[in-house]
Structures are given as structure tokens and as C-alpha cells.
Amino acid sequence: MALIAAGLWLTAISAGFSAGSDGPSPQGNTGLARRPYESRRSARVAVSVAAGVPTIMITSPTDGGEYERGARVYVRYRCRSGAVSERIVACRRTEQSGRALDTRSPGAKSFTVTATDTSGATIAKTVHYTVWWYVNPLRDLTNLQASRIDMGVDYSGSGPILALGRARILLASDRLAGPESCWGKTCVPPPGGWVTYRLLDGPFAGKYVYIVENITITVHTGQTVAAGQPIAILHHASPNLETGWAAGHAAYTLAAVRGQQCACSDPGGWSSIEGRNFNALLTWLGAPPGYITSIPASQRMPRDWPALPQGRSGAARRSAR
């Protein structure tokens, strides 16, 4: 009986050693330890593979960046070998790192850097950016004289009126004539013609500009125009040209839609904040400034309205022609 009992006891012990997860067996414990070890090993292999991939860093130009035509933007990029990869032997782009980016022409641009390692393998990285350009829309007018600032800015003169920037024409019509009681609200006093366009580039992208009064329109609704492209011909007659910020629908000025035209017999009887803001942009571009009649109290531009770019001189404005 003692021998039988001993045999049963040894059998139980043997079963315990081979039980795996429940018993105190070395075999079972070894199996448990192997799985986390293999997991850690797989993670190390994954890290090594990731570390072995060469990388390209482009810090200038930035992806989605916008730069004014002629701006000095310096190219900044570098290529880096991975920890276990072949050595990088070439990191190339037309403009070398530290040199100026070509911003001579406006439009959508891309910038690509390509890295090559000693095995001949290559990787590439591309960023996309835009070069914008605004021009003085009145630069080609003759006998140009600035007048008052009202819902926009008034001028007299004759000749071509240009698109301030790349834009899409939203409204171009000479069939909006009506009584002066609706001036700047829903229609144009005769003789008339109204153009509204939406800027597509630059700090004021998405904003609307109108030109009105004594013009012959040379564009059509839906057309896309380039900065500096003629959009109307101004005739030397009264009433003078008016140009400013538009609301973006129908023949409405921004000042009228925001309820900031003069509450007097002449809706342009004071210098609205919208008119003064557009005057600042025209002056920044090199146009002669209009004059202020009176400044209404408590008027502000919309909260998210763009600010003028800084640091542009009169010489730079003239060279941008």
C-alpha cells in the first residue's frame, strides 16, 4: 500500500509540473515567460525598423503657407539617416537649404526634397504653398483724384480698373439702376454698373470687393481673374467711382448689410468703418487716400477681420506694379 501511495504521489507531482498555468511547473512558468519576452522582442524589431527609415524635415516653406509675391522666404530642410539604414549621400532640391525661395510669380506651388542613401534607395517629401499678389486697382487710371470715404472710397478719373488680387467675379451687371434711395443697398443709381468679386488668395482671401458707378464692365459673372487684370473701364463723369468691401450677395455693400451706412438722407454721409478699412488697404497698395467726412461712434470691423501685412514700404508698393 505504501508503494502504491508513493506512486500516486509521484504521479500527482508529475502532472503538476506539466500543468502549465495552474501548477508550479517549470515548464508552465517557462511558457508564461516566453510570451512577454517575444512581445518585447517584436516591439524592439518594430522600433529598429522605424529607426532605420530615413526622414526629411522641411521647416520652410511650410505646408499650406501663403507668401506675398517678392517676399524673401528662406528654404530650410534637412535629411536624416535612420539608425540602422544606409547613409544619406544626397539631399537635393533646386533651392539649397538656406537660400531664398522663388516667389517671383503668384499661384499654387509645391516644394519637394528627395533623399538618396548609399544603396541608391530614395525617399521624397512635398509641401504645398501659395504665392499671392495684390495690386493697386487704380494704378492705370488717368487724372485720378481721391474723394470722400463713405461706405467705400470715391474717386474720379478715367481708364481701366484692375482686380485687386486673384478673384472670382460674383456679380457683373449694368442692369441694376434704381432710385438713389437704394444707393449702396440693393441697386445702383443711373448711370451705373456693379461688379462684385471674391478674393481667392492672400490675407483677405474670402472677402468681397465692389466697384460701382460710371463704369463699363469688361468681365462676366463666374469668371476668374488674375491680380492686375482689367475688370471695368471708368468714365470721367459724375457720380464718381466708388469701391469698397461688399457683402458678397446681390448689390450690397458690407456697410449697408451691417447697418453701418449713414442714417441720414445720404447713406454715404459719413465715413463708415468699412470705408475707412478699405481706404487703408488701398493706401497700403499705393493708391491716394480718400478723405474722412465724419467718423461714426462705436463702429468696428468684424471680429475675425484680417489685418494688413506689416513692413511694406512705398518703394515696395511701386515695385509691385
Please give the structural blueprint.
Blueprint: H1 2-17, H2 26-51, E1 55-60, E2 66-68, E3 76-80, E4 88-92, E5 107-117, E6 122-132, E7 142-149, E8 153-162, E9 167-173, E10 194-199, E11 208-212, E12 215-217, E13 224-225, E14 230-234, E15 241-246, H3 254-257, H4 273-284, E16 291-292, H5 314-319
Parallel strand pairs: 2-6, 7-16
Antiparallel strand pairs: 1-3, 4-5, 5-6, 7-8, 8-14, 8-15, 9-10, 9-13, 10-11, 11-15, 12-14
Could you please describe the fold and organization of this structure?
It contains five helices and 16 strands. With 321 residues, it is an alpha+beta fold. The protein has two domains: 55-132, Immunoglobulin-like, CATH 2.60.40; 142-297, Distorted Sandwich (Glucose Permease (Domain IIA)). The strands form three sheets. Strands 7, 8, 9, 10, 11, 12, 13, 14, 15 and 16 form a ten-stranded mixed beta sheet that branches. The protein has a four-stranded mixed beta sheet with strand order 2-6-5-4, with no helix packed on it. A two-stranded antiparallel ribbon has the order 1-3. The radius of gyration is 35 Å and the shape is elongated. The N and C termini lie far apart (114 Å). The relative contact order is 0.12.
